[in-house]
């Protein structure tokens, strides 16, 4: 065919390249509706058969399902992503401030990030005209974006006097095999959503918005069971097949806020900027799944101290039944072994120490030795890590039966400020103090 003959497909592509960008700030779902006719034409041209053309031609987009339409407010007393129900997809990403960047650059970055997170979590196309379009046809999908500061952030911003003692480095544990390049960081961002593309879209937007102020130190990707995948709401399972999170503190408990959130302090007092915030301990825990899966189920249950089928204690009952730690079997031995994970980590065995575990599973392919590089992106929240995570981990480190089947490969501790009010940005009370 001669190049001088009109080619409607090529002409359409040429027109599309010269089309001005759409207005910013409208909802992603509304944008899909306004471009439905053009989108349908594009799909027809690219379709391989009549069925695809029929499905795309002239149809009004369906209403969002519950999963897609659920939104989480960005503004509030606490940041989102702490008490938000577990999401299906997650990204954890740490940044270091760029050489020469200090408090001024950090404040400008947090202002950009907060405004961006507010738009994304509302299901809006972020302003600026350079959106990737990855999430145009999705609703908010329970997206949350949570920000935290690492210990070194206070050195880089000349705010050492405002650094709380709870951010002192975590102690070393004998089972640690930590990769320094995948640990800690000046800034930490947790992204969660019930749709993979919405989560990725937020990740990409946050990374781009960092600009010259900060550069990525490490990034990890995780997942959980999708909402609606079970017949009724259930506690999540990890990659070992175990129900994980049974003894989590619950917002309905009278002392929940006291355990999870930093209390308010009078304005002008030390660390008042952290009121309503929390501390996040982040650990990449590799599961030695080949070794674990070779264990008969009965032995797996003795390692954990709970039944695999329903998460109930080996001493009987349901998932929420209290552990009968003193009960012995006919042989005189403890039904829940002395080194069982559930026994050692129980709050009553650790002076009441409690933390809100909110993890993601991960699978990063097959290692060179043929084993799966998979496990848990462990994230736990507490008002004080020295009274939450540290005492429990110390005890686990001394004799947890599960230790033979896991490996702690990365670690971080971050101070997570309280939520922002409308017109504010996260961390404003610290950076403008």
UniProtKB/TrEMBL annotation:
Give every Dyp-type peroxidase C-terminal domain span: 235-420
Q: What class of enzyme is it?
A: oxidoreductase
Compartments, record wording: Cell envelope
Top-level taxon of the source organism: Bacteria
N-terminal signal peptide: none
The cofactors named for this UniProt entry are: heme b
How the cofactor binds, per note? Binds 1 heme b (iron(II)-protoporphyrin IX) group non-covalently per subunit.
The UniProt entry's sequence similarity note says: Belongs to the DyP-type peroxidase family.
Q: What is this protein called?
A: Deferrochelatase
Instruction: Please state every residue range assigned to the domain named Dyp-type peroxidase N-terminal.
Output: 79-224
- EC number(s) from the headed UniProt entry: 1.11.1.-
Function comment: Involved in the recovery of exogenous heme iron. Extracts iron from heme while preserving the protoporphyrin ring intact.
What catalytic activity does the UniProt entry give for this protein? heme b + 2 H(+) = protoporphyrin IX + Fe(2+)
Taxonomic source organism: Streptomyces lunaelactis
UniProt-listed SUPFAM superfamilies: Dimeric alpha+beta barrel
Instruction: List the taxonomic lineage.
Output: Bacteria, Bacillati, Actinomycetota, Actinomycetes, Kitasatosporales
Q: Which GO terms describe its cellular component?
A: cell envelope; cytosol
The segment annotated Disordered runs over 1-25, 224-254
Mention one GO molecular function: peroxidase activity
Give the keywords, sorted.
Heme, Iron, Lyase, Metal-binding, Oxidoreductase, Peroxidase, Signal
- An example Gene Ontology biological process: iron import into cell
| Coiled-coil stretches noted in the UniProt entry, renumbered to this chain | none
């Amino acid at each position: 065919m001669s190049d001088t003959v009109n080619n409607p497909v090529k002409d359409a592509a040429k027109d599309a390249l010269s089309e001005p960008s759409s207005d910013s700030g409208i909802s992603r779902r509304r944008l899909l509706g306004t471009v439905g006719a053009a989108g349908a034409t594009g799909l027809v041209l690219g379709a391989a058969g009549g069925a695809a053309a029929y499905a795309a031609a002239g149809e009004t987009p369906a209403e969002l399902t519950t999963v897609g339409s659920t939104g989480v407010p960005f503004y509030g007393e606490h940041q989102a992503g702490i008490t938000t129900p577990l999401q299906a997809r997650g990204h954890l990403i740490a940044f270091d401030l760029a050489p020469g960047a200090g408090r001024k650059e950090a404040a400008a970055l947090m202002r950009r990030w907060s405004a961006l997170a507010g738009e994304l979590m509302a299901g809006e196309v972020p302003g600026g005209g350079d959106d990737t379009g990855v999430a145009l046809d999705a609703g908010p999908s329970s997206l949350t974006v949570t920000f935290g500061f690492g210990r070194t952030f206070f050195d880089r911003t000349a705010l050492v006097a405002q650094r709380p003692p709870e951010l002192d480095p975590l102690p070393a544990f004998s089972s640690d095999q930590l990769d320094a390049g995948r640990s800690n960081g000046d800034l930490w961002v947790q992204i969660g959503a019930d749709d993979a593309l919405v989560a990725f879209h937020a990740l990409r937007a946050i990374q781009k918005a960092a600009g010259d102020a900060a550069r990525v130190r490490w990034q990890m990707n995780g997942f959980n069971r999708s909402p609606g995948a079970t017949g009724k709401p259930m506690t999540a399972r990890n990659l070992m097949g175990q129900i994980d999170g049974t003894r989590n503190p619950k917002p309905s408990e009278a002392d929940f806020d006291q355990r999870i959130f930093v209390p308010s302090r009078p304005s002008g007092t030390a660390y008042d900027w952290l009121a309503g915030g929390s501390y996040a301990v982040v650990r990449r825990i590799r599961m030695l799944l080949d070794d674990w899966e070779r264990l008969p189920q009965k032995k797996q249950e003795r390692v954990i101290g709970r039944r695999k089928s329903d998460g109930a204690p080996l001493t009987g009952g349901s998932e929420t039944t209290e552990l009968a730690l003193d009960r012995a079997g006919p042989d005189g031995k403890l039904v829940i072994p002395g080194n069982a994970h559930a026994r050692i980590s129980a709050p009553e065995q650790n002076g009441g120490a409690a933390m809100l575990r909110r993890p993601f599973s991960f699978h990063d392919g097959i290692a060179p030795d043929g084993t799966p590089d998979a496990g848990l992106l462990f994230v736990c929240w507490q008002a004080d890590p020295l009274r939450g995570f540290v005492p429990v981990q110390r005890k686990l480190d001394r004799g947890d039966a599960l230790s033979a089947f896991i490996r702690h490969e990365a670690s971080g501790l971050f101070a997570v400020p309280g939520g922002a009010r409308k017109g504010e940005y996260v961390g404003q009370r610290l950076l403008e103090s």
